[in-house]
Specification:
The protein contains three helices and two strands, in the order ααββα. It is mainly alpha-helical and 150 residues long. A two-stranded antiparallel ribbon has the order 1-2. The longest helix has 38 residues.
Length: 150
């Protein structure tokens, strides 16, 4: 938002010209000589006090309970979307898998495929976690019993 500039009021103390050095405002007025009249020199104007510092906003601490709440709320939203997807895709489709054959609703078949993909990702993640823990255990064992790595 911008403000409309107001006119200069010489009688208003807020609009008065202030100079950092005494006598510089009077140096340009007068007889045109470079001589400065020091008899009417103004006292230096003290700088305006700095505004009080605003307190820093409080930092919010992330708690485990807050993370669990956010995870549960996100999971509920995903479940609602999945239920809507399954209910809207009730046409039966023919499914063949390793010699097994059957017909299931399309939404259910896709949900089962998604869960199967999630299980594969979880197995790969668990294998990597086990690998990293074994490596950390080896490092701790080589460091010796008296040293702490944490």
């Amino acid at each position: 938002m911008t403000e409309t500039p107001r006119r200069f009021d010489p009688n208003n103390p807020d609009d008065a010209l202030t100079t950092q050095y005494p006598g510089t405002a009077d140096a340009t007025s007068g007889s045109g000589t470079s001589e400065v009249d020091t008899s009417r020199a103004e006292a230096p104007v003290a700088p305006a006090p700095a505004p009080a510092p605003t307190p820093a906003p409080e930092t919010r601490q992330v708690t485990r309970a807050g993370m669990v709440w956010a995870a549960v709320a996100s999971a509920l939203v995903v479940l609602i979307v999945l239920i809507a997807f399954i209910l809207q895709n009730q046409e039966y489709v023919q499914v063949k898998f390793f010699g097994l054959e059957g017909s299931v609703p399309l939404g259910v078949a896709l949900f089962i495929a998604a869960v199967g993909g999630g299980v594969l990702v979880a197995i790969a993640g668990a294998a990597r976690i086990i690998q990293l823990r074994l490596a950390a255990h080896r490092v701790r064992r080589q460091a010796g019993p008296g040293t702490r790595t944490r």
